[in-house]
Write a structure and sequence with these properties.
3 domains; 8-stranded mixed beta sheet; alpha+beta; 10 helices; D-Amino Acid Oxidase, Chain A, domain 2; about 400 residues; FAD/NAD(P)-binding domain; about 25% strand; 6-stranded mixed beta sheet
Amino acid sequence: MKHVVVIGGGILGLSVAHDLLRRGLSVTVLEKEAHWGQHQTGHNSNVVHAGLYYKPGSLKARMSVAGNASMIAFAREHGVPVDVCGKLVVATSEDELPRLNTLAERAAANGVPAKLISGSEAREYEPEVSAVSALRVESTAIIDFAAVCEVLVRLLDGADLRLQSPALAIRSTASGVEVATPQGIVRADALVNCAGLHSDRVAKLAGLTPSATIVPFRGEYYELRPERRDLVRGLIYPVPDPALPFLGVHLTRMLDGSVHAGPNAVLALRREGYRWRDVSARDVWDVLRFPGTWKLARRFGLTGLDEVLRSFSRKRFAASLARLVPAVREDDIVRAEAGVRAQAMLPDGSLVDDFLIESAPRQVHVLNAPSPAATSALEIAKHIADQVTFTV
């Protein structure tokens, strides 16, 4: 039986392992943390995205639209909480209407069920929203991605699942790969790298020169105080800036009734830096010496400064939310848990917009899989498993 080693135990790594196991392969999953889905999977907004934002024909567009359906079906089959609540993308001023119309055209091109509605119609869904027009997206859902990981782990009965097992070295052999871990050598016919925030480093361990470098961006969240949760019924998003891969600060009602607000986007000083005081000299040095960092800073320096100021000012954060829901005040929000986005960047300073998957003999490396990767996890897993089964 052919054996595949998967590095990374987030929702994507576990989904890949599950797909490979179903195809009759033997699988080992190596996760450096003590729990599954500890980082990007466990620190996201738990939104099952519809697929409207992404360039038609791109991996993100195809896999998020298909992933929306497959993830919701998976949740329902296995008893994972999921609520297909839909969302609003709102234009708060007339100058945002062209971008909203473009987004509606992209939704149609991607096969996403969405329709343009008036401001008054938007207020039928969200009475407190400020909107001159909005895009109503019906297939967006809220889920518990950590619970999805728990199900995947149960379904991986028969696989070799190893926590606290970082990949320390990787060597290609005539017949496959060898991965050194603190517990010993894992020998396999093929390797799949789903290491997220460390995916570029794992690729280098395996002998690749990846085309992109991971630059970590922290997304900070607030949540509405319990007595103010009635301001938001569902999901309210702004019209995004097409020049950036981030969707902008938005409001999301979670499965437990809480309402999360955010995220902003600031450079993290550690790849798993969920707070400003989380600093890694190695990670900071890697960012500073990467030429793309400075080229990005020259293009978006003022935007970055605004994000940093919002990070330190609850008043500024509340003001950005008040653009969507004017009734939100500074005292209505309290700090919530942050997340870190593993964003791949090219040497010219451009942020990789699509999923990025690079291959070598008997190796597949996922080098850019931020949002909507959790939504698309089951579809990305099929895509990767097809490549692996072709090479082993």
